[in-house]
Amino acid sequence: MEKDKGILLESGTNELEIVEFCMGNSKFGINVNKVREIINPTAVIPIPHAHPHVLGIIEIRGEVLPVISVERALGYPKAEQPELNKFVVTEFNKQKFVFHVHKVTQIHRISWSQIERPSEMYQGTDSPVIGIIKMGSEMLLMLDFEKIITDINPASGVTIDKVKSLGKRERTHKKIVIAEDSPMLRRLLKDTLNAAGFWNLQFFENGSECLDYLESIVQKEINFENELQLLITDIEMPLMDGHHLTKRIKEHSKLNKLPVIIFSSLITDDLRHKGKMVGANEQVSKPEIAELVLMIDKYV
């Protein structure tokens, strides 16, 4: 699958491309930056005692990759037209996974501002849906693929054990602001950063709310450096993504000295240049929480 190498991937324009796929009658989306290729299903080798969501493994150009059933992960019945099924080969969190879906339809270019976060009224905090995209009379659901993987293998996510490996740490009350849309990640980040000695944390569910807060501090005409010391941001968030948030901060006459660490599953060799272009001070791939803590130490 060819990637768009144009300005969309270079400028922090708050835009993205998504691959639309179907499960039953429902439509979902995945960020193109996570997709390496889309292939027809091939024979899968089952693994004894594997998690129920894992169909087995396949080999692609010398790499052995796990195949995960989105059907099972989301509780959908079997496909009515299995001949349309596809394997979506992905890369995030420095790992590659293959997701078995019912059908892949098209690619959309949209703005993060078009993605609404789900209401807690109709979804629980453990839902894998992290965004809703209105496409005319239809809706696409953005899935939290990191959560699907963490549900299968909790040790692959952000864990306190990784912080404990750093040894005993002193507590600090210096303030850190964190923009992260995933309820699961917000909860895990709170627990792990608390364990690392960082207690003064303030979370926002997207870049837009975070920027509003930062600008409100400036409007109070106080020294924001005394109010907070660091921003940690995800990239994929409804309304405003982390690249655009970072760009807005670094272009701001008063906020531009605020250190920004991007903590995202999309920190890869191919995409790291995007964070550099918008002025991020550091970039860390999820789920490397110990590496994130060491980077925080440089600025707090």
Average pLDDT works out at 90
In the CATH hierarchy, the architecture of the largest domain is Beta Barrel
Question: Could you give me the name of the CATH homologous superfamily of the largest domain?
Answer: CheA-289, Domain 4
Question: The CATH topology of the largest domain is what?
Answer: OB fold (Dihydrolipoamide Acetyltransferase, E2P)
Characterization of this structure:
The chain folds into two domains: 7-152, OB fold (Dihydrolipoamide Acetyltransferase, E2P) (Beta Barrel), CATH 2.40.50.180; 157-299, Response regulator (Rossmann fold), CATH 3.40.50.2300. The chain contains nine helices and 16 strands. It has helices spanning 70-74, 145-152, 160-164, 183-195, 207-219, 224-227, 242-251, 272-277, 289-299, and strands at residues 15-23, 26-31, 35-39, 54-60, 63-69, 86-92, 95-101, 103-111, 115-116, 129-135, 138-143, 176-179, 201-204, 230-233, 260-264, 282-285. The strands form three sheets. It has a six-stranded mixed beta sheet with strand order 8-1-2-11-10-9, with no helix packed on it. Strand 12, helix 4 and strand 13 (201-204) form a beta-alpha-beta unit. Helix 5 packs parallel to helix 7 (242-251). The longest helix has 13 residues, at 183-195. The radius of gyration is 20 Å and the shape is globular. Residues 1-9 have low confidence and may be disordered.
